[in-house]
Design goal:
The protein has about 260 residues and is mainly α. The chain has one domain. It has 10 helices and no strands. It is globular and about 50 Å long.
């Protein structure tokens, strides 16, 4: 009788833990989707930063796959520039797969501490670049060699931390796209990066049924949050909202580093 009660208690605790994680995923993706709806980017970075505080970066990255694809494929195809962008960014995108191969095993390794510290450092760097409003300019003639290098570095950092915004995002903002081209270029980059991240996680055995189910489930709050963000975009100062986002990411990055270093 005592054994049965203990088994029942363990099942209840597992269910409570499962409901707790599901609730955190809903909150994280509602917020991350809202950020993307307001400023057009930030879903992967915000979601990973929030969830990595309560689980390993590899688990957080595995949940990211489905909602990231669902919210970025439309951004990639919704515009007339896709073929031109693929030609122009092809070296960077191919370099990203090479970098992901070089960094494979860091994110999915048994010791999650290096990945968590790396994620914290990347969040700090991303936030500091945003807060300081550093502007870069890249001449068109330099893209042929700089694009693949940026791709390799981005892929390596992604394979180590799950984040694929550094240095790709500053590079995309520096090569002279107009507003509509940049939006579609970001959609292309985020979509291809998500595929590369999925391959890294699959190769490292970081996917399982429960994480795959959570990933599919996370599509709903991500899309709902993005829709809400788009609805209120006109009523919110984008600069003020971006400032709050960077401050929040700065705090998250510092927390991840402190928790895994001290």
């Amino acid at each position: 009788m005592g054994i049965v009660k203990r088994r029942d208690l363990l099942q209840v605790r597992r269910m409570e833990a499962s409901f707790g994680i599901t609730g955190l995923v809903v909150i994280a993706y509602l917020l991350a989707g809202f950020v993307k709806g307001v400023i057009g980017m930030g879903l992967p970075t915000v979601a990973l930063g929030l969830l990595a505080a309560v689980m390993t970066p590899a688990q957080a990255a595995a949940i990211l796959i489905a909602p990231s694809l669902a919210t970025n494929i439309w951004q990639m195809v919704a515009g007339p520039y896709l073929i031109g962008l693929i030609k122009r960014l092809g070296g960077m995108l191919l370099g990203m797969f090479a970098g992901a191969w070089l960094g494979s095993g860091i994110l999915t390794g048994e010791n999650a501490r290096p990945a968590a510290i790396g994620l914290g450092v990347v969040l700090l760097a991303y936030a500091l670049i945003g807060l300081t409003k550093v502007k870069f300019t890249v001449a068109r003639r330099n893209e042929i060699w700089l694009g693949p290098l940026v791709g390799i570095l981005t892929g390596f950092i992604m394979a180590a931390t799950g984040v694929f915004v550094i240095p790709a995002l500053p590079y995309l903002q520096a090569i002279g796209f107009d507003k509509d081209e940049l939006v579609q270029a970001l959609g292309l980059h985020f979509t291809v990066s998500t595929v590369a991240l999925a391959l890294v996680l699959w190769d490292g055995g970081a996917f399982d049924l429960s994480l795959g189910t959570l990933s599919l489930f996370a599509i709903v709050p991500a899309v709902a949050g993005m829709y809400a963000g788009q609805r209120v975009r006109a009523r919110i100062s984008a600069d003020t909202f971006r400032l709050c986002l960077y401050i929040g990411l700065l705090a998250l990055g510092a927390l991840l580093v402190a928790r895994n270093v001290i």
